[in-house]
Specification:
By secondary structure, this protein is of the alpha/beta class. It has one domain: Luciferase-like domain (TIM Barrel, Alpha-Beta Barrel), CATH 3.20.20.30. Helices cover about 50% and strands about 15% of the residues. The chain is built from 13 helices and eleven strands. Strands 1, 2, 3, 4, 5, 6, 9, 10 and 11 form a nine-stranded parallel beta sheet that branches. Strands 7-8 form a two-stranded parallel sheet. Helix 2 packs across helix 3, helix 4 packs across helix 5 and helix 7 packs parallel to helix 12. The chain starts with 7 loop residues before the first strand and ends with a helix. It is an enzyme of class 1 (oxidoreductase). This is LLM class F420-dependent oxidoreductase. Keywords: Oxidoreductase. Its EC number is 1.-.-.-.
Length: about 290
């Protein structure tokens, strides 16, 4: 039995789901009922625990990790939790794996070699290629995703990257890019909200290197990003504009688009006041479920 993602899912930082507290089961059940194909969880120490809670609360929807950081999550623990959760919820957990922050003692190690070793150990544990996806943006990791997993889950990319990734993956492997969305028509306000989220990622070598491969310059990457960069990696505007960008990714070769809604509620200066953008989820469901 194969994991089903549908055409559109929702990506959110792990902390937003944790912040729901006792409301988490209700929120998960609502997202499930809205018709989205998957809930994608950003990385964090308790990612597998939250995935378990979501699977228990929502009867249908797929839960995907986007991503489990292979430097911070021991493979033995991940394999054991994956086996436990898939036994309880067959074909509803997609294990997304990727490179993330690491300790100084790990800086000289090869992310590619580390991923290969991690996959080898998952194979030995019984977690097959069809149970996982790789958070791949560069050409080498994308090729590994096609060879050793269900496919690729690129993060912070553009429609052009989706086109290139589909060409590299070929026909068959899953391509499920993350897409940041701001439901705001005012350019200044929309870009300001977008830049609050981009600030963290533009300083990271892997993301900035991929954006350079896509033709962005040092000027584009300076500070919180140029308007050209923001407009390429974030779909902002009215609902028709956002839906249009999702369709562009599908037309470029994406099987599934994982939407991350950005708003002032998702990026409050005080983490304890951050909330899932559930009202935006409802609006997006009306326009997108069935795309």
């Amino acid at each position: 039995m194969t994991v089903q993602l549908g055409g559109v899912g929702l990506w959110a930082p792990l902390g937003l789901w944790i912040q729901e507290g006792a409301r988490l089961p209700e929120a998960a059940a609502e997202v499930d009922a809205l018709g989205f194909g998957a809930i994608w969880l950003g990385n964090g120490p308790t990612i597998m625990d939250v995935a378990s809670s979501l699977l228990d609360a929502a009867p249908r929807i797929t839960v995907a990790t986007g991503i489990v950081n292979i430097w911070q999550h021991p493979v033995e623990e991940v394999a054991a939790r994956h086996a436990q959760l898939t036994a309880r919820h067959p074909a509803r957990l997609l294990l997304g794996l990727g490179n993330g922050p690491r300790e100084p003692s790990q800086w000289l190690l090869s992310p590619y070699r580390m991923m290969v070793e991690y996959l080898d150990q998952l194979d030995a544990s019984g977690c097959s290629a069809g149970d996982r996806v790789l958070g791949a943006v560069g050409p080498r990791m994308t090729a590994l995703a096609a060879a050793r997993s269900l496919g690729a889950h690129p993060f912070l990319t553009t429609v052009e990257h989706t086109r290139q990734a589909r060409a590299a993956l070929g026909v068959g492997p899953l391509l499920a890019p993350e897409l940041k969305v701001v439901l705001e028509a005012d350019p200044g306000r929309a870009r300001s909200i977008a830049r609050q989220a981009l600030d963290f990622y533009l300083s990271k070598r892997g993301y900035s290197a991929n954006l350079r491969r896509l033709g962005f310059t040092e000027e584009d990457l300076t500070g919180r990003g140029s308007d050209r960069l923001v407009d390429a990696v974030v779909a902002w505007g009215d609902m028709a504009t956002v839906v249009g960008r999702v369709r562009e990714h599908h037309q470029a070769g994406a099987d599934h688009v994982a939407i991350q809604v950005l708003s002032e509620d998702t990026d409050q200066p005080r983490p304890d006041r951050r909330r899932l953008p559930r009202e935006q989820y409802r609006r997006l469901a009306e326009a997108l479920c069935g795309v």
